[in-house]
């Protein structure tokens, strides 16, 4: 049962891994941050062109962004998808067009943040209950394991 719980937790929070790299952009005029992760769609313009480029982010490095562009060709009733992998230096990007995520992205962010805050609150409540209990019952290790798993 415990293994099933941790497996489900891993599946739900797989997109919120701490070790993965992401691209964070800040708008200093409006005071908000946009975060792009692997698998997100990005549209941008470079300094030397007026055309807009876009694709799905394959990986993010310290100074490079690797995107996958899918070109759809229709010829004589047949459709062909051609995939191009392109690396773009971050210093070449002039502006990024941001489209808000859908409901799934909102739910995932809400769930991820809620479990971290809920786990910390539950850990604090467990600790306060232990300190204020006059009988000094031992700390429930299962509750501590669950809260640390949530965090």
Would you summarize the structure shown here?
The chain contains three helices and seven strands; from the N terminus they run αβββββββαα. With 151 residues, it is an alpha+beta fold. Helix 2 runs antiparallel to helix 3.
Structure notes:
The protein is built from 3 helices and 7 strands; from the N terminus they run αβββββββαα. 34% of the residues lie in helices and 36% in strands. The chain has a 5-stranded antiparallel beta sheet, with no helix packed on it. It has 151 residues and is of the alpha+beta class.
Please identify the structural class as seen in this structure: alpha+beta
Unreliably modeled segments: none
Strand content: 35-45%
- The radius of gyration computed from the alpha-carbon positions, rounded to a whole number of angstroms, is 22 Å
Strand order of the largest sheet: 6-5-4-3-7
Helix share, percent: 25-40%
Main sheet attributes: strand count, strand direction, barrel closure = 5 strands, antiparallel
Order of helices and strands: HEEEEEEEHH
Global morphology: elongated
Q: Count up the helices.
A: 3
- Mean pLDDT value: 78
- CA distance, first residue to last residue: 19 Å
- The overall strand count is 7
């Amino acid at each position: 049962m415990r293994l099933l719980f941790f497996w489900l937790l891993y599946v739900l929070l797989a997109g919120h891994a701490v070790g993965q790299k992401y691209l964070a952009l800040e708008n200093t005029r409006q005071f908000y941050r946009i975060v792009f992760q692997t698998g997100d769609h990005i549209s941008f313009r470079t300094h030397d062109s007026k055309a807009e480029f876009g694709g799905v982010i394959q990986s993010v490095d310290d100074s490079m962004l690797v995107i996958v562009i899918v070109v759809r060709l229709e010829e004589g009733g047949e459709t062909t998808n051609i995939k191009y992998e392109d690396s773009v230096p971050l210093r070449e990007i002039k502006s990024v067009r941001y489209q808000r995520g859908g409901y799934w992205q909102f739910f995932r962010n809400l769930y991820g943040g809620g479990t971290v805050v809920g786990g910390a609150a539950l850990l604090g409540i467990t600790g306060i209950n232990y300190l204020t209990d006059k009988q000094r019952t031992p700390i429930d290790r299962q509750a501590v394991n669950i809260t640390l798993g949530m965090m």
